[in-house]
């Protein structure tokens, strides 16, 4: 279970960021600023600053959301939770381990490097130049 340490006051988040992070909402496909963004760097959680993903593992999955085939230091950064919110479509939710914020989902249809696709909402990650 995540530690649930919100280091960023929820009042500093946009309404969309709060909805996704705290209520597990999903931004519209293709609407996020990081879907087609490929600059070198790291991606951190907007809720607490935890480093989540590297640009080195980002790829274009064609899904409309930023996709990564591997999390950075997964044991320290994310938590996987079974998600049965959609009938007949079990998924695995991905949450930030530090602040318990909803990030997206991980699917088993990723590239050969890992076989996994972390499908992440753009609004809950922040790009940091290395």
TrEMBL record:
<comment type="function">
    <text>Methionine-sulfoxide reductase that specifically reduces methionine (R)-sulfoxide back to methionine. While in many cases methionine oxidation is the result of random oxidation following oxidative stress, methionine oxidation is also a post-translational modification that takes place on specific residues.</text>
</comment>
<feature type="region of interest" description="Disordered">
    <location>
        <begin position="1"/>
        <end position="26"/>
    </location>
</feature>
<dbReference type="InterPro" id="IPR002579">
    <property type="entry name" value="Met_Sox_Rdtase_MsrB_dom"/>
</dbReference>
<dbReference type="Pfam" id="PF01641">
    <property type="entry name" value="SelR"/>
</dbReference>
<feature type="compositionally biased region" description="Basic and acidic residues">
    <location>
        <begin position="1"/>
        <end position="21"/>
    </location>
</feature>
<keyword id="KW-0479">Metal-binding</keyword>
<dbReference type="GO" id="GO:0033743">
    <property type="term" value="F:peptide-methionine (R)-S-oxide reductase activity"/>
</dbReference>
<dbReference type="GO" id="GO:0030091">
    <property type="term" value="P:protein repair"/>
</dbReference>
<keyword id="KW-0862">Zinc</keyword>
<dbReference type="GO" id="GO:0005737">
    <property type="term" value="C:cytoplasm"/>
</dbReference>
<comment type="similarity">
    <text>Belongs to the MsrB Met sulfoxide reductase family.</text>
</comment>
<feature type="domain" description="MsrB">
    <location>
        <begin position="6"/>
        <end position="130"/>
    </location>
</feature>
<dbReference type="GO" id="GO:0046872">
    <property type="term" value="F:metal ion binding"/>
</dbReference>
<dbReference type="InterPro" id="IPR028427">
    <property type="entry name" value="Met_Sox_Rdtase_MsrB"/>
</dbReference>
<dbReference type="InterPro" id="IPR011057">
    <property type="entry name" value="Mss4-like_sf"/>
</dbReference>
<keyword id="KW-0560">Oxidoreductase</keyword>
<protein>
    <recommendedName>
        <fullName>Peptide-methionine (R)-S-oxide reductase</fullName>
        <ecNumber>1.8.4.12</ecNumber>
    </recommendedName>
</protein>
<dbReference type="GO" id="GO:0006979">
    <property type="term" value="P:response to oxidative stress"/>
</dbReference>
């Amino acid at each position: 279970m995540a530690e649930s340490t919100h280091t960023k006051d929820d009042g500093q988040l946009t309404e969309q960021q709060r909805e996704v992070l705290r209520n597990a909402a999903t931004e519209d496909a293709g609407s996020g600023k990081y879907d087609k963004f490929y600059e070198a760097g790291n991606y951190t959680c907007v809720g607490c600053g935890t480093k989540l993903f590297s640009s080195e593992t980002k790829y274009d999955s064609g899904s409309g959301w930023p996709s990564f085939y591997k999390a950075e230091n997964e044991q320290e950064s994310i938590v996987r939770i079974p998600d049965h919110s959609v009938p007949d479509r079990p998924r695995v939710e991905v949450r930030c381990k530090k602040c318990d914020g909803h990030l997206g989902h991980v699917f088993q249809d990723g590239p050969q490097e890992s076989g996994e696709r972390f499908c992440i909402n753009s609004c809950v990650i922040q790009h940091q130049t290395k």
